[in-house]
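Researcher: We're teaching a course module on how sequence relates to structure. For the next exercise, students receive a sequence and then see the predicted structure as tokens, so they can try to spot secondary structure elements on their own. Here is the exercise chain.
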Amino acid sequence: MRSRLLWTIALAGLLASCGPAGCVSSLQPLYTDDDRVFETALLGVWEGEDSTLRVERSGETAYLVTATHESRSSQYQARLIRFGQTLLVDLSQDDAVLEEIGKTQYFPLVVRVHFICRVEVESDELRVACLDGDWLEKRRAQGKLGIAHQSTEDGIVLAGSTKELRAFVRKHAGTDEAFQELSIWRRSG
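Model: And here is the predicted structure for the students to work with:
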């Protein structure tokens, strides 16, 4: 289970290794209907070290992200929000993928989770850094995490409400240590 989850996360461009403490997911979204933003600069095909991201518009303020590594691909929904000058993406499994799982499995045990990353786009370069599981684990061990959570074999799951998640991320959005090392993608073609 852990290796499949880690492969999926890396494939999505969550864009860096999850680290020894695992990956960070949230049960609730970071965005609300009132504050989603859309940046046309994200649209297009982005080439990473060994994978590709295709970012397409999906509705008024959402994106469909198709991540491809070798012959395998996955689709995700992405929504942007901005806290001050910091642009963040909330990435979750695409609805069509969840529907397909429901059609092919008798009783699927699937819970939508959200991954939170900082995003910077300049010209033909996309830089992404997701919340860092090691940083969160250190804060948890010190009793300083400050948001409801659960530690699992796959990493920390943030369990606070959207309002609590937003307060937590807003507080740490400018803290470099709170996010993984930047993954850099270059616009294709």
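Model: If you want an answer key for the exercise: The longest strand covers residues 72-83. The CA atoms of residues 147 and 160 lie 6 Å apart.
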